[in-house]
Every structure is written in structure tokens, then in C-alpha cells.
Input
Amino acid sequence: MRWPEGKPQPNQNIILEQVRIEEPRDWWDLMLGVKTYSSFSPEVLLSSWISFGGFGIGNTPEFAYDFTYLNAFRVSRLSTINTSFRNIRYSRVDGEGDWERDTRVNVLGAFLGTSLMFN
Output
């Protein structure tokens, strides 16, 4: 959305124009990370990993991170039940002037799944 021509005045009805942007938004981020595994028994595995980066290189975000925590519980020789939490966050600014776009994304949530192992 963008403001129509002119500046808004107090108590003025404002109608916003809808602007559709169809240009591709591709970029790459230099990310550094750490991944850990802890096996408490043959039936329980805990794992976490975090990657962070961006660093404002080129058109990358000033800062971005991706964090995941995973619990895996072996229920049979071939399968596990997995519970996990993930958080991804980045903030970036594209364009300039009237077309400057400030994008802030924070995605988080839990998930439940199963894994099958054929070895």
C-alpha cells in the first residue's frame, strides 16, 4: 500500500491505492551455525541448531537467524516420533525513496512428526 499524492490532513478520509509488486525478490545470506546432538539413550535423541548471519553484506539483512530444537523418541526399530520448535527471523530494507520496502519476518512454531529409517 502507498499513500496517494499529497499529504494527509487531520480528519481527512484517506483512500489507499493497492500496489502489486511482481518483481522477483532473491538474495543470499552468509550464515554461520552450530549443530548439537545429545543421545541420552538408544531411544531418546535431543538436537538443536542455530544459524545466524546476514551482516549487511550486499543486499542481505543486517541480521538473520534460524533456530531449531528437536526431540526424537524411538518407538520401534524403524521409526521415531519427533517433536520440535523452530524460529526464523530476518529484517531487511529494499529500494529507496517512495519505493523503499522494510520487511520484517518472524516465524515461529512447533511441529510433530514421524521418521522412518531403513538401514
Q: What stands out?
A: The beta strands are 31-41, 44-54, 63-74, 79-94, 101-116. The longest strand covers residues 79-94. The mean pLDDT is 82.
